[in-house]
Amino acid sequence: MSDFASFGGADEENAEIKRLNAEVEAEPDNFENWEKLIRACEGLEGGLNRNSSPQALATLRDSYDRFLLKFPLLFGYWKKYADLEFNISGPESAEMVYERGCASITNSVDLWTEYCSFKMETTHTPHLVRELFERAASHIGLDFLSHPFWDKYLEYETRQEAHDNIFAILKRVIHIPMHQYARYFERFRQLAHTRPLEELVSPDILAQYRAEVEAEAAQFGMAKPELEIERDIRAKIDASFYTIFQRTQTETNKRWTYEAEIKRPYFHVTELEHHQLVNWRKYLDFEEAEGNYQRIVFLYERCLVTCALYDEFWFRYARWMEAQDNKDEEVRNIYLRAATLFVPISRPGIRLQFAYFEEMCGRVDVARDIHAAVLMKLPDCVEAIVSWANLQRRQSGLDAAIEVYKAQIDSPVVDIYTKAVLVTEWAFLLWKVKGSVDEARTVFEKNVQWYANSRHFWQKWLEFELEQPTNAELEAQHAERVKGVFAEMRAKSRLSPTIKQELGQVYMNYLQQRGGKQAMKEFLLIDRELFGPQSISPITKAKLSKESVGLPELDEATRLKAERRFYNYYELHMDPDPNAQGPAMMMATAARTFTRALRTTARPAFTAAPRVAFRQSGRRFYSSEPAAKQGSSTWLWLAGAAAVGGGAGWYYVNNKSSATPKVFTPTFEDYQAVYNEIANRLDENSDYDDGSYGPVLLRLAWHASGTYDKETGTGGSNGATMRFAPESDHGANAGLKTARDFLEPVKEKFPWITYSDLWILAGVCAIQEMLGPQIPYRPGRQDKDVAACTPDGRLPDAAQAQDHLRAIFYRMGFNDQEIVALAGAHALGRCHTDRSGYSGPWTFSPTVLTNDYYKLLLDEKWQWKKWNGPKQYEDKKTKSLMMLPADMALVQDKKFKEWVQKYAADNDLFFRDFANVIVKLFELGVPFEPENKERWVFKPVNA
Ligand code: HEM
């Protein structure tokens, strides 16, 4: 930044600039502050002009330079800057700014057109002006909306009265599919009549047409006068032009659908709608299928102005380019731009990919530098450190890799919890690459004194010991080791009880699966201590006795770091959802959401039996997804300006919520407030069921919607008629009073929301907060009175099987796949003897949505439960899970089972289909008004 003692203005002005400078330094992502700074600089000394003081001018330039380095795609500011330079120092300085601007945003039709227009006015040497027009044409001439540029070019040639040139330009333009193609064709055609034949077509074609015309005349045995011959040749030429026109028209039409959908062709720091991203994807698919290299590159370049902050498109461009022959330089350029200018540093994935590319090209030093650059900005980026160590291992051997870890572990800027992960990576290298189990174990043993509070450290140590091969001879020693690690974890770590439970489950799993005859004694002891009531649990009584004696609890911020999980870019990668609605998060926020979706439970969940834990175990690459560091003025190679983009969008999105509507019409923010209220209360009563009201709220939303009858249009989520008897007394709704009562205080606090909207919102909130997928929501349901209650029998009967399920769900308009997807909700909650008569949960984690319901249906052996209650199944192994006869129908019916298998195998697929079908369910029977067309996605509280 500028370090002038004085900025040139009066004292107050200087103080103001100083303040604004400090603000942009502190918060470089805040676009509004930058704008204020620029405005303040422009206003220095009563408005800058060529007589202003050198200090004031330097301050202005310095601010503009820093601003445009940060937001290089804002073409309007380049233009403004150029105008200012013109006024201050004349055309040459302005031209320099235009040159820099066009180099930063090479495909801006507006900026190039402005530049050409400026050149037209300020240069009297035609060939220099034409040179610029031609440069511009090579960058933007193919743009679908390039007509302002071509118009300017034609205007210039008209001014020069260069008719030949005008015709030559038109002759090029008529081949380009673009918005105003017909207008240019008309003009071209009229002009063509006045141009000599030689100018219209090549000599070969002309000779061919002449020969054809003469041959036609010869058929009738007569020679035509030259004038008539020319007229006939012109008719042929005209016909050939018309063919060109038709071709251009067809090409234009093919692109029209995509072009019409582009709502924001320019760069902005705010988020784009999902729909816009979908359109760009489809447009690129289309252009790639057409196969014209030049056009494809052109479209990517355009797309990457609008979508510059979405790294999916940078990845896609680089991958596409890599698939072309001999394009290493082009690929390098794409990575370089993504990494140095656009993609926020908080998404290191593309930079690492760049490093892999350079390594592949034999430029290992560059690959190393890229890693170093990422780490300068993100010293705690585990993914980058691990990637660097692996690069060293591949290129220079194991010791070099270990050196990387050691250097980072010794570094004063690296966080202790990052170091804990690195230590485990180091140990795993020794074990897996060097084959030295003892050395690896020593690393764990020696380092435990430093990293005993890291969840990851213990997880990896346990994993290491568990995976050591055993035989009858070694089994006892092996068991001692595993037990030792677990005991040490309990004694030394200050992790939360939940994490200790989670690690405990791994140990219990081991005891079950590999323990000897006495193992159940240890199993039950741990079970009691970790999962038993507080009065007997040593975790809660830790301070009283042996466990973690005298160790104070971790504060919240440290605990979050200590228990954090790590993922790499590829783990977070998901195929985009083509049906997603609303604004699409930019990378910085998206990373957080993906992480959330992938997260395994860390909730206090029901269980006395082992749960599937450590789904992430064995993963070797991580991203600790740190936020971009702010406040540094150093522009680092590769890390620099790109730290900006995502954050700025986030700032805007956040700021929206501060808008207070003058007339009270509830907005997204108001509904988000209701959402937050529900989310914050879900776990308020830890004695309720498994610790969350989420499942019963979801059941309420489902039962409110599931009464729909597509034939009569009655029932559905519009009405909330379950408030009234008889519907509240229907057998299927037993127990839902709990959910309705839970929501009553929310309704009191936000009286403007209808019950119908509130119940569904609660369902959405429950799913998202129980770590399910995002569920788009829209309000617009109206409450109805008792007359609208639906008859009994519209909801499914748990005692029945597939025929009944089909009858019930087909009536609502669902198909087989949707029935199976909906049933996945039974991963959540439990049955209650005092409600339905049935008893028990379906899964081991009834407050976290997963596809475990399907997995358990397929993998477990189910038998009839022997009891006095209604007929239900229990799992043979633990006898603690249940299935209803209706659940079992999903694996007894062939068609249903196919979907059960698919969802069991693919949690992402389940989440996608579940989200879609839930949106459908929750909107059954609601006649939304046009103003409720748009669906929103609420920001989870438990993210
Ligand atoms: C396929 C037909 C279905 C049948 C026969 C059925 C039956 C049942 C029964 C008997 C209960 C136990 C109620 C209690 O005792 O508290 C229950 C609970 C539950 N059901 Fe379903 N259900 C079906 C579909 C669905 C669907 C489509 C959803 C949501 C999309 C859903 C969500 C739930 C939830 C979350 C619970 C747990 C409630 C709690 O923990 O309090 N069910 N279901």
Automatic annotation (TrEMBL):
What SUPFAM superfamilies does the database record attribute to this sequence?
Heme-dependent peroxidases, TPR-like
Q: Where in the cell is it found?
A: Nucleus
Which keywords does this chain's UniProt record carry? Heme, Iron, Metal-binding, mRNA processing, mRNA splicing, Nucleus, Oxidoreductase, Peroxidase, Repeat
The terms describing its cellular component in GO are: commitment complex; U1 snRNP; U2-type prespliceosome
Q: Where is the Plant heme peroxidase family profile domain?
A: 690-942
Q: Per the UniProt entry, what is one GO biological process?
A: response to oxidative stress
**Molecular function terms, GO-annotated:** heme binding; metal ion binding; peroxidase activity; pre-mRNA 5'-splice site binding
Gene3D superfamilies linked: 1.10.520.10, Peroxidase, domain 2, Tetratricopeptide repeat domain
Judging by the UniProt lineage, the source's domain of life is Eukaryota
Q: Which Pfam families match?
A: HAT_PRP39_C (PF23241), HAT_PRP39_N (PF23240), peroxidase (PF00141)
**InterPro entries associated with the record:** Haem_peroxidase, Haem_peroxidase_sf, HAT, HAT_PRP39_C, Peroxidase_I, Peroxidases_AS, Peroxidases_heam-ligand_BS, TPR-like_helical_dom_sf
Question: By its UniProt entry, which PROSITE patterns does this protein fall under?
Answer: PEROXIDASE_1, PEROXIDASE_2, PEROXIDASE_4
The EC designation for this entry is 1.11.1.-
PANTHER family the UniProt entry points to: PRE-MRNA PROCESSING PROTEIN PRP39-RELATED (PTHR17204), PRE-MRNA-PROCESSING FACTOR 39 (PTHR17204:SF5)
Q: Give the function comment from the record.
A: Destroys radicals which are normally produced within the cells and which are toxic to biological systems.
Family membership, please give it. Belongs to the peroxidase family. Cytochrome c peroxidase subfamily. Belongs to the PRP39 family.
Protein's name in the database? Peroxidase
Q: Which organism is it from?
A: Achaetomium macrosporum
